[in-house]
TrEMBL record:
The lineage of its organism: Eukaryota, Metazoa, Spiralia, Gnathifera, Rotifera. Belongs to the EF-Ts family. One of its GO terms (cellular component) is mitochondrion. Signal peptide: none annotated. This is Elongation factor Ts, mitochondrial. Residues 256-414 form the Putative restriction endonuclease domain. It comes from Adineta ricciae. Residues 94-218 form the Translation elongation factor EFTs/EF1B dimerisation domain. Keywords: Elongation factor, Mitochondrion, Protein biosynthesis. GO terms for biological process: DNA repair; mitochondrial translational elongation. Pfam families: EF-Ts_N (PF25025), EF_TS (PF00889), Uma2 (PF05685).
Length: 430
């Protein structure tokens, strides 16, 4: 008769637990986690310096830098046609850099993306001529700038270290910095963004755009003959029909506009005394707005009201009255209501015919409305959106970007409401 017995000692689990703790807290494990270098290199460093972690780490960094430069020299003749564009902005300046590598696989590597972020931040910190509105950096100039993390090293040194890590040729291609003056604004866009970041971090993607523009001051601008110009005339570069022929020479009263609009078959907007007729909207425009309205109604959010599309938005003085794409409010619309002064969310559809008007005029005036918390800009052609958020405490505006798979959160006063960007484009013909 064959009898099998299994003996289990009560101290085995305790022994295994102790050994696990000992192994995780060993100098070799600590050094490997801290530096990210291979196990064999970390073991050799600890043996050379008798388990002194600080000396072993310094030796590893020095060796990696040397090997990186050696590998960078060998690989510099290989074509680097892939890579990322990095953009970072702050209150008064913005930087955009292009860093190239050999393959798209490395462009997705965390160490490569850390390099792009470090180069972009270093540009902002190291610029010495902040009085200049635009500073261009070529490949050679970029390499000589001190690194943000360790000013004893240049960006060329950091790049060589990245080459040793990813095993491909990496090139600092070019960079540019914009600085703003009074009454100037910065706008940026990163297409094909690969990282999810806050508005004050480095955004990275395949393509990038950085724009600096000036806000028109109607109190100081003058025409060639010395006559004052209003911002409405300057910012609308394409022809729009006015209510009356002499409106350009003589502003009209707000009451006159309101009376005329009630009797008109066309929609007109009032811009501090000047009235413009709106072009007719496209069918796709109305479809997108209906999809947005349907999403909000399905969520049955408390105290959220989608205002009818014929209700206009009025800004504080100077008075501008616009027809928004869509307006959300905490207050239910009244019978025969024509204007709201307390919108919470405004949605605008960006098309080639509305892009300049919305982004360069409407958005600036919308942000003067105290009750407004969000402005959502939907781009049907790109199937993306960007949203301007007002900070509850500082009242400053920040911008975030969303792709078709993302959901846009609505203000906290609307509960847990959100807009699924993909559903906005349902039934839309490309």
């Amino acid at each position: 008769m064959l009898v099998c017995r299994r003996f289990i000692h009560t101290s085995v689990s305790r022994y295994l637990a102790k050994s696990a703790v000992a192994s995780t807290s060993s100098p070799l494990s600590t050094l490997r986690k801290k530096t990210g270098y291979s196990l064999s290199h970390c073991r050799a460093a600890l043996q050379q310096f008798n388990d002194n972690l600080e000396q072993a780490e310094a030796w590893l960094h020095q060796r990696a830098q040397t090997e990186g430069w050696s590998r960078a020299t060998k690989l510099q003749s290989r074509a680097a046609s892939q890579g990322l564009v990095g953009i970072i902005t702050n209150k008064n300046s913005a930087a955009m850099v292009e860093v190239n590598c050999e393959t798209d696989f490395v462009a997705k590597n965390e160490k490569f993306q850390q390099l792009v972020s470090q180069v972009a931040n270093s540009l902002l910190v190291n610029q010495t001529e902040k009085a200049k509105d635009k500073i261009v950096f070529d490949k050679e100039t970029l390499g000589t700038l001190p690194s943000l993390d360790d000013r004893s090293k240049t960006l060329a040194d950091v790049t060589a270290l990245c080459v040793g890590s990813v095993g491909e040729n990496v090139v600092l291609r070019r960079g540019i910095v914009f600085n703003t003056e009074n009454n100037q604004l910065l706008a940026s866009y990163c297409h094909g963004q690969v990282n999810s970041t806050s508005s004050d971090s480095c955004r990275m993607g395949k393509y990038g755009a950085l724009v600096k523009y000036s806000q028109v001051d109607s109190t100081t601008s003058q025409s060639e003959d010395g006559q004052p110009l209003t911002s409405s005339v300057q910012t609308r570069s394409y022809p729009l029909r006015t209510i009356c022929e002499d409106n350009i020479q003589k502003p009209i009263e707000l009451s006159t506009y309101l009376d005329s609009e009630d009797e008109s078959n066309l929609m007109h907007e009032y811009l501090n005394g000047y009235v413009y007729a709106l072009p007719s909207r496209e069918n796709a425009h109305d479809l997108l707005l209906k999809n947005i309205s349907a999403q909000i109604e399905q969520q049955q959010l408390k105290d959220v009201h989608v205002l009818p599309m014929d209700i206009r938005v009025q800004t504080p003085d100077p008075v501008y009255i616009y027809y928004p794409g869509l307006c959300l409010s905490n207050q239910a619309p009244k019978i025969d209501q024509a204007i709201t002064r307390e919108p919470v969310v405004i949605v605008e559809i960006i098309t080639p015919t509305t892009e300049r008007l919305v982004l360069h005029e409407k958005s600036i005036n919308y942000q003067r409305i105290p009750s407004l918390k969000q402005i959502i800009y939907v781009w049907p052609s790109l199937k993306i959106a960007h949203v301007d958020f007002r900070d509850e405490q500082t009242s400053k505006w920040t911008r975030k970007y969303y792709s078709v798979q993302d959901k846009i959160p609505l203000p906290q006063s609307f509960g847990n409401g959100e807009l699924a960007l993909g559903h906005i484009f349902d039934n839309m013909v490309s």
